[in-house]
Amino acid sequence: MQLIHILGYAGLVPFIGLTFVQLWPQLIAFTLPFSAFQSYSQIILAFMAGALWPLLNQQSGPSLPVWVVSIALVGWFSSLLLPQHQLLVLAAAFIAVRLIELWQGSLLNYSPAYHRLRNQLTTVVVFCHLLYWWSL
How many helices (H) and strands (E) are present in the chain, helices listed first? Predict the structure, then answer.
């Protein structure tokens, strides 16, 4: 398995683990705050959007990278403006980043294996956000 796949799947561990702990709090002896899931989600979203910045800026000009990174900012501002719905906003933001990747596929030149990986990761992350939000 390539390093990028290992790192991608490893990045799911906090999403899945924190969702399980939220759904079944008896799994651990202490409570984890909602902010653990929230902050990890914001960090990963910012990373995913930021990773697209140089690729898109180089080939499409500055406007598209600004939009991509603004998605991460919307995710962060949602914690201030829409705290009850922030997980839904973050889930939508992960979908938006993935859709931009697909839309700009010819510019990004990703392999089919990477596209499958990104689809799997995004699906799991969005599912965890929805489960966590539903459990609140």
Answer: 7, 0
